[in-house]
Every structure is written in structure tokens, then in C-alpha cells.
Amino acid sequence: QVQLVESGGGLVQPGGSLRLSCAASGSMFSMYIMGWYRQAPGQQRGLVATITSGGSTNYGDNVKGRFTISRDNAKNTVYLQMNSLKPVDTAVYYCNAFRRAATFVKEANYWGQGTQVTVSS
Length: 121
What we know:
- The protein is an all-beta fold and 121 residues long.
- The chain contains no helices and eleven strands.
- Strand 4 (33-39) and strand 5 form a beta hairpin.
- It is elongated, with a radius of gyration of 14 Å.
- 29% of the residues are buried.
């Protein structure tokens, strides 16, 4: 029902910036909580940021003040602006769409294929 495609990853030097995009195809995009998660080598997948359809945001402690999540419901797209990047930010970044269960609707959880972000000098 929902397909997520990330873009914008790449190689950046410490202190640099990068903007990731996630384009969603399907219906009722505005009903999903959108998020970004990341997984570094040897690490578990962890929260980067989430944003509700109403614009409420939540950030992981390691990225607060540096990353900003936003969404454009008209374009079915969610963004992650990453500033002041550090080597520890190196990871595969995954886009996520989540919808809690409701009457006649099962819980839904969709993931993109991931995009590599490498921060290195």
C-alpha cells in the first residue's frame, strides 16, 4: 500500500550538511507518522526523528539541535535536514511510515530501502 524511497545520502565531511528526502507512494499519507531511523555497523537501528501529520516532532538525543525533520503532505514527502554532521552519524538511514490500528484498520509499518550516509574526512 505504501512504498517509501529515500534519496540524498552520500559522503560528507565532518561539520557539513546533508538533506535526505523520502517520497511515499500510496494513499492517506497524511494519516501516517513519518520517521527517520538509522543503523550503523554493529549497532541496532535507532530513532533519529519522527513527525506526526499535525507537525509534532520527536528527536533522538544524539541529534537534537542538529537535525530537523519536516513533511510536505501535499507532496507525500518527508525530509531530514542534517547539520553539523559528525563521524558518529555515519549509518544507513531508513524512512518509516507508521499507522496505529483503528476500527477496521490494522496497524501498518512500512520501511524504505535505506540510504547510506557517510561522514568522514
